[in-house]
Amino acid sequence: MSLFVPKFDDSVVVRDADAEVVGGDPVAVKLLADSSASGGALSTVRVTLAEGADGARPHLHRNSAEMFFLLDGEARVLSGDDIVDAERGDLVVVPPGRPHAFAAAPGSTADLLIVITPGVERFEYFRHLQRVRLGEAGPESLLEVQELYDNHFLRSEAWEARR
Q1: What is the pLDDT confidence band of residue 7, given thresholds at 50, 70 and 90?
Q2: C-alpha closest to that of 102 among 79, 128, 129
């Protein structure tokens, strides 16, 4: 077993008013702390989803676990072939290499704190997603950055059957 010890000297403090928000309705991503801010320990964002909105399609991270903490509302989280319906206060942690996805539950909004550990520089990934949403980049461009952001897309019959 190896132990990753992050290296950074100062506490990470992100004021709500200073955090960049990418997107808007139906999906807003508040960029809180990227890997470089925490010495590689974590990357964290807050994702707010409108009623029934998709947060992320099925994908996996080869080198990081992903934690979903539901701040408010209800979310549906894919973990492997399992679908977890999460409510306010619930926590779901997906291990590295396990397919996952998330969305607001049908008829509900969702507000999630998401942490990836160890961290990966992901702020540019969310900015890239916004460019795709705005038509400034094609969806196929996401395939070109899968390795860079350790974000590997895949199909999930379990997810498609429940969405």
Answers
A1: confident
A2: 79
Q: How far, in Å, are 33, 36, 66, 116 from residue 40 at the CA level?
A: 10, 6, 14, 10
Distance CA 34, CA 16 (A): 15
- Distance from C-alpha of 46 to C-alpha of 134, rounded to nearest angstrom: 21
Contacts of residue 140, Cβ cutoff 8 Å, sequence gap at least 6? none
Q: How many angstroms from the chain centroid is the CA of residue 148? A: 15
Two tokens at 66?
A: 């992903």
Residue 13 neighbours by CB under 8 Å, 6+ apart = none
Residue 104 corresponds to which amino acid? A
pLDDT tens digits along 13-71: 999 999 999 999 999 999 999 999 999 999 999 999 999 999 999 999 999 999 999 99
**Helices (DSSP H) in the chain: which residue ranges?**
123-133, 141-144, 146-149, 157-162
134, containing H or E segment: none
Structure tokens at 52: 């029934």
Maximum distance among all alpha carbons in the chain? 47
Model pTM score: 0.94
Partner residues linked to 77 by β-bridges: 84, 102
